[in-house]
Please model this.
Amino acid sequence: EARHERILIEIFRTHVGGEIGPLPETGLTALAEVFRKGHLEERKSEMEFIDLAIQAELAATRYYQRERNLINDPEFQNVFDRLADEEHAHYEILMAEREALSGNYYWFGYEGTSPVEH
Model:
């Protein structure tokens, strides 16, 4: 998430500029909905939290993909594409974590034969 924050700050400075003001009190509606429906406060195990986080990453990915289509500017469409790609990468890392916790140590990355590292 720290890397994600750096990317968002870079995008803001490149496309908007100026000082970054206070963040809004609420986040993406798509994420709030996942956590509400997922009963976050009832989660007890690592696997339950990971499953909920996986759902949140997919919701964020879909959000950026959907919102991108509301913009006609190709430069800003690329910003949303980049954000969607970042969220999807988080999803893949969480899937690897879930597989490792399940005892499946043969979950491999796409580019080679070594296990996914983070």
Observations:
- The chain has a mean pLDDT of 77.
- The chain has four helices and no strands.
- Residues 74-101 form the longest helix (28 residues).
- Helices lie at 2-15, 29-37, 46-68, 74-101.
